[in-house]
Amino acid sequence: MIGRIAGVILHRAMDHVLIDVRGVGYIVHVSSRTAANLPPVGEACALYTELLVREDLLQLFGFPTLIEKEWHRLLTSVQGIGAKASLAILGTLGPEGVSRALALGDWNAIKAAPGVGPKLAQRVVMELKDKAPTVMAMGGTLTVDTAPSDALIETAPKPVKRPAPAATRQVNFTAEALSALTNLGYSPSDAATAVARASENPEATDTAKLIRTALRLLAPKD
């Protein structure tokens, strides 16, 4: 099983990237969101990968974080969701958007992905809603380093250090807030729903504010 690819980008497209690993080029299929965030051609990158094996086909699918890879694995476990549909959902919503949509039971958000109809979107929500809190709690600390392993690429150019993407920081906030609420005694399902709703508030810009907003949503209504 190929679980990670680290190397130099030779070619980029909207749905795949060609990565050179010590002279061997690997075509890795990615979501449009991942493709847009990859470094330019000639720079180093690394992606977690999932290998699809069929009788007449071998395909690699790449993800910038383990959370996104986990969502891909869960999405493709739903009948009717293949790798292409999974990447369409992740490309449209991102892993944090998928978590939010499932926690809120928002199948319309899932339906916004190209090729995903209403019945399929409802099935995704029904089958995966209870799994959203577990994946949300994984946090954003599992992001792949942008620098390739020296053991794999000895001549790779030194990558430019970039700040963590806003989406990654949001996943961190979400995981920390979810953990705090469950430690306070709220059920994972209630905590996930409150955090998902709270994350839509533009003022919830860090963990503390996200927790306070979620607690207001969880407070008993008079």
UniProtKB/TrEMBL annotation:
It is found in: Cytoplasm. Homotetramer. Forms an RuvA(8)-RuvB(12)-Holliday junction (HJ) complex. HJ DNA is sandwiched between 2 RuvA tetramers; dsDNA enters through RuvA and exits via RuvB. An RuvB hexamer assembles on each DNA strand where it exits the tetramer. Each RuvB hexamer is contacted by two RuvA subunits (via domain III) on 2 adjacent RuvB subunits; this complex drives branch migration. In the full resolvosome a probable DNA-RuvA(4)-RuvB(12)-RuvC(2) complex forms which resolves the HJ. GO terms for molecular function: ATP binding; four-way junction DNA binding; four-way junction helicase activity; hydrolase activity. This is Holliday junction branch migration complex subunit RuvA. Residues 1-62 form the DNA helicase Holliday junction RuvA type domain. GO terms for biological process: DNA recombination; DNA repair. Pfam families: HHH_5 (PF14520), RuvA_C (PF07499), RuvA_N (PF01330). Signal peptide: none annotated. Residues 65-142 are annotated as: Domain II. Belongs to the RuvA family. Has three domains with a flexible linker between the domains II and III and assumes an 'L' shape. Domain III is highly mobile and contacts RuvB. Residues 166-222 are annotated as: Domain III. The RuvA-RuvB-RuvC complex processes Holliday junction (HJ) DNA during genetic recombination and DNA repair, while the RuvA-RuvB complex plays an important role in the rescue of blocked DNA replication forks via replication fork reversal (RFR). RuvA specifically binds to HJ cruciform DNA, conferring on it an open structure. The RuvB hexamer acts as an ATP-dependent pump, pulling dsDNA into and through the RuvAB complex. HJ branch migration allows RuvC to scan DNA until it finds its consensus sequence, where it cleaves and resolves the cruciform DNA. Residues 174-219 form the Holliday junction DNA helicase RuvA C-terminal domain. NCBIfam families: ruvA. Residues 1-64 are annotated as: Domain I. It comes from the Bacteria. It comes from Rhodobacter capsulatus (strain ATCC BAA-309 / NBRC 16581 / SB1003). Keywords: ATP-binding, Cytoplasm, DNA damage, DNA recombination, DNA repair, DNA-binding, Helicase, Hydrolase, Nucleotide-binding. HAMAP family: DNA_HJ_migration_RuvA (MF_00031). Transmembrane segments: none annotated. InterPro entries: DNA_helicase_Holl-junc_RuvA_I (IPR013849), NA-bd_OB-fold (IPR012340), RuvA (IPR000085), RuvA_2-like (IPR010994), RuvA_C (IPR011114), RuvA_C_sf (IPR036267). One of its GO terms (cellular component) is Holliday junction resolvase complex.
